[in-house]
Amino acid sequence: MKVNEFVVLDKFIISRYTMAVLPHHFHGDSYAKVIEEDGECIVKMRPIDIIKRSCDYYGASFRGRKEGTRAVIGITHKAPIAIEPLNEIYVFPTISPSDSRCVWLSHIHVYKYEPTKNDQTIVYFTNEKSILLDVSYHSFVNQLYRTAQLRTKLSERMEARERKLQYVFRMNRSKDWQQQ
């Protein structure tokens, strides 16, 4: 089905190509507008439900991802979510996720951002698209930096674990070689 030249989907899973999930109201219903690198669609789900469903799809609950964020960087309110860290799918809310006006942005797609005179923020994506957000520049930058901190910490942990595994593997090979 199409509405105003947008494809309308019943369900959606966020991928590495998803740039933003915005609230979209149509005939009194709360839907989501999803902006991808190569197009846009309307989804018959609220943005928060897309985030939760995507977490489930990649093997973790939204609640678990929120608790993980708290454990890693100590953030509990407006927490960035590592939907799928191995594919660098990190999203962050512009305001409280319980607010129906909340927009979710993918960290890897934010190219630059700037304040407006009306205490809003323009966000430019890596594919040169842009959106105007009804959020202050300071608040946006804070959310962006929190997400960068989460990405960095999780990446460091994954790399440290990998180094440790490599070390154990080399030690075991060395012992096997010495026993021959």
How many helical elements?
3
The fraction of residues assigned to DSSP E strands is 25-35%
Largest sheet properties: 8 strands, mixed
Total strands: 11
Count of discrete structural domains:
1
- Name the poorly predicted regions: none
Span from first to last CA? 68 Å
Helix content: 25-40%
Question: What is the typical, i.e. mean, pLDDT?
Answer: 91
Q: Which radius of gyration do the C-alpha atoms yield?
A: 19 Å
| Class from secondary-structure proportions | alpha+beta
Order of helices and strands: EEEEEHHEEEEEEH
Shape: elongated
- What strand order characterises the main sheet? 1-2-5-4-3-8-7-6
Protein name: Competence transcription factor
List keywords for this structure.
180 residues, alpha+beta, 8-stranded mixed sheet, 3-stranded antiparallel sheet, 3 helices, 11 strands, 37% helix, elongated, ComK, Competence transcription factor
Characterize this entry briefly:
With 180 residues, this protein is an alpha+beta fold. It has helices at residues 47-57, 62-73, 137-179, and strands at residues 2-3, 6-9, 18-26, 29-36, 39-43, 81-84, 89-93, 104-106, 110-115, 121-125, 130-133.
